[in-house]
Automatic annotation (TrEMBL):
Organism: Lacisediminihabitans changchengi
Protein name as annotated: Flagellar M-ring protein
Membrane-crossing segments per the record: 21-45, 432-454
Keywords linked to the UniProt accession: Bacterial flagellum, Cell membrane, Cell projection, Cilium, Flagellum, Membrane, Transmembrane, Transmembrane helix
Keyword Cell membrane: yes
Record NCBIfam families: fliF
Region (Disordered): 271-333
GO cellular component: bacterial-type flagellum basal body, MS ring; plasma membrane
Top-level taxon in the UniProt lineage: Bacteria
Taxonomic lineage of the native organism: Bacteria, Bacillati, Actinomycetota, Actinomycetes, Micrococcales
Amino acid sequence: MPAQLSSFFSRFTNGLREFTIAQRTVAIIGVAVLVLGIVGISVWLSRPQYSPLFSGLSATDASGVVDQLRTDGVDYQLTDGGGTILVPEADVYSERLKAAAAGLPSSDTGGYSLLDKMGVTASEFQQNTTYKRALEGELASTIEAMKGVKTASVKLAIPKDTVFISEKSDPTASVFIATQNGISLDDDQVQAIVHLTSASVDGMKSSDVTVVDAKGSVLSASGTDGAASGSKQSTEYETRVQTAVQSMLDKVVGPGNATVVVAADMSQATGQKTSTTYTTPTDSPAINESSNTELGGGAGSGSGSSAGVLGPDNISVPSGSGADGTTTGANGVTSQQVTKNNALNQVTEQTSIPAGELRKQTVSVAINAAAAGNLNVANVKSLVNAAAGIDTKRGDKLSVELMPFNTAGAVSAAKEIAAQQKAEADARTMDLIRTTAIVLGISIPALIIALVLLRRFRRRSGELRDEKEAGELAELRSIMMDQTVPMQLTPPAAAAPITFTPMPIEPGDTDRKRAELDALAGADPQRTAEFLRGLMDDRQNA
């Protein structure tokens, strides 16, 4: 183990030994909480993400899919009352393929697939019934695809075609809707269901569709013919006009000094209007022209004989000029007939009349007399007339009046709002103070404990470092004292010269100590100088 790591563990162990029982308990609890947190985060991160495998399943299909998952050993979760099955994301597609191979989900609403199962020997009644069931299933599946719809059921009543009745009844439909939890269908979605159903059946009108929800509430009754939509159109028009006029008056007399009420009468009838206009072209030749002239009779035919055509009461009519262009002369009878066919311009216009046509409207405006001042009522009427689109020929009415407003309610409401705002501000302040007190109550003792432990740990580390350095200095002092002992040399007995061969000095413990001494001198020169100064004093005293 490296010296630094060993020193760290030794200091850490010595620091723990200095802890009291309470401090050790707190430290153990903190370490345990930290370990549990790390384990919990690891488990949460390693947990697989679940995705829907199937949703909107019946009890039979859900049971079959669950059995398939158990056989494959795949974890699953059931939600939405057992109608939705969740599996890990990695197993979604493989399990869907396996379920499809096993024929799951098996139950459905039918649809046009019922026609594929119908045999060639089916009777006319079976064919009609199967077709109606298929159409009901297709409509139910389409409605279930809408947002917020959980299940849907459609029942059709289609009259039988026969030649023995002169008047045929219109087909009708009943739609049952079960929405998801906490979701309600708005008017637009209900109207979409009504029009979708009516447009899918030949001869069915939107007024022949009834929509009912799971609570038993009638969302669209048969025979209303879009009355709810017409009411919505009226409300939207009134709101739009009221907003425009109110915005203008707020800039004229100030906010809160004018009130506007709009009542609109809108027609809900729809239809087609066809008009044809014929005009005679000018300077246009005739398309065709025919002339027929007849000549007859002899020279004596012009005498005054009484021969002729018998008239009423068998009285003969004398010969003369006829009223039909036939003339009688001395030479006989002449008849001429002319026929001319002239071209005419024909213009045919077809106009669709939608629901929501404005019949008339009434706009009432009340202005606070205290804020009006020198306001001209005629000018205000002119402005409102233009902003609301008043048409007197249509029967629209406009009323603008100056009157004192009752401000007691406004003053009381303002006081209540101010009191409520003050109470909310006080509550927020108290919550902030309470939260701050809790945080300080927890953090301050923890900070004090941490500072005490850190100070004690530093003090203990300093003591250990001083002890270690003192031991190293003492060891170095002993080494230096050993090296300063004088050596006793005994002269040789013979006077003959002796040749000394120098021996190589092998590095040993002394060299290592010298290297450590050099390192200590480089790390702390002042302490090393003091040590050497003391060593020299000891030698002088000796």
